[in-house]
């Protein structure tokens, strides 16, 4: 009986392997078939009334299927080895919100951020501040859709998110990405020098989801890069110990306020290099600060910006993080809730989007291996979708930051005298 089972398992694995190879061939054939079909169809289109009179069927800002900034959309987890759509940067939704302590709803975050991005598109993405666009031929950015996270079992959900992230991290970058002679921080090729296997890995911009999604992400990144330095924009610390939370099994300790503590316990963080920026939440007491330092973080408070300005914040962060692999995690509640109300645990007296944009620009050129934006819960948004729109434009800044070699000089009005001394001179 045992021998039969072994034989059966062996036979099954051979069948599975051949099915995988077959699926890969099918994908290649499908892509080629679609390409040929498009070529054949091109000749006929001019004969058709609509095309001959009005041209191609383009998606307008308010029309078409929903992807971030109308980027190419692919269910990347089904695209074996990225055969049809290789990428440098993947936008990946993690619609998970079953680890929150107050308002649920961040499972709609990926939808909300994509919806807020409808006026962004590659043909109109050049910004004055960057004097460039993140959607260039040098970097392939695609929307990889969402991980189909279960809302009923956090253990399974965490396993899904880690598996999905690891799967995409293991994908090859496009062939031309590492063919340029001059190494560039802006290209995913730069991850080669940081990875333990010395291979280039794509970078993932994750749309949360509540903040607990960062635990499976850090587990994935740790496998590829070793201990990770975290730059954490948030009004909350999220380093609280899991003691005191009640539940029947270990997964009850996964909350959106404790995941960094757990990550530190698992040695995923590079202690002494991580930094929070924008902190202003109420604490249990001074013991929260010493616990936070034990976890590996230093705090930059929301109010610090009044004393040292956005560029002072940038300098504190750059001086702290060092040269190892860096993960940037951004909770939308770092923005003031009068501007971005749609979030799970709002804290008044926060930063403006303009201040945050300038700080993000100042971080370009650091060794980023991944970024996220989390805690967007569109059900609490204004009728004007302010949070979703602010979040989408933060994503645009994050993409621009990932593909830039360093901070931009920034556009200055020609009406300003070249030698004018202004209060913000030197700021980005
Ligand atoms: Mn927060």
UniProtKB/TrEMBL annotation:
<keyword id="KW-0732">Signal</keyword>
<comment type="similarity">
    <text>Belongs to the arginase family. Agmatinase subfamily.</text>
</comment>
<dbReference type="GO" id="GO:0008783">
    <property type="term" value="F:agmatinase activity"/>
</dbReference>
<dbReference type="GO" id="GO:0046872">
    <property type="term" value="F:metal ion binding"/>
</dbReference>
<dbReference type="InterPro" id="IPR023696">
    <property type="entry name" value="Ureohydrolase_dom_sf"/>
</dbReference>
<dbReference type="InterPro" id="IPR020855">
    <property type="entry name" value="Ureohydrolase_Mn_BS"/>
</dbReference>
<keyword id="KW-0479">Metal-binding</keyword>
<dbReference type="InterPro" id="IPR006035">
    <property type="entry name" value="Ureohydrolase"/>
</dbReference>
<dbReference type="GO" id="GO:0033389">
    <property type="term" value="P:putrescine biosynthetic process from arginine, via agmatine"/>
</dbReference>
<keyword id="KW-0378">Hydrolase</keyword>
<feature type="signal peptide">
    <location>
        <begin position="1"/>
        <end position="17"/>
    </location>
</feature>
<dbReference type="Pfam" id="PF00491">
    <property type="entry name" value="Arginase"/>
</dbReference>
<protein>
    <recommendedName>
        <fullName>Agmatinase</fullName>
    </recommendedName>
</protein>
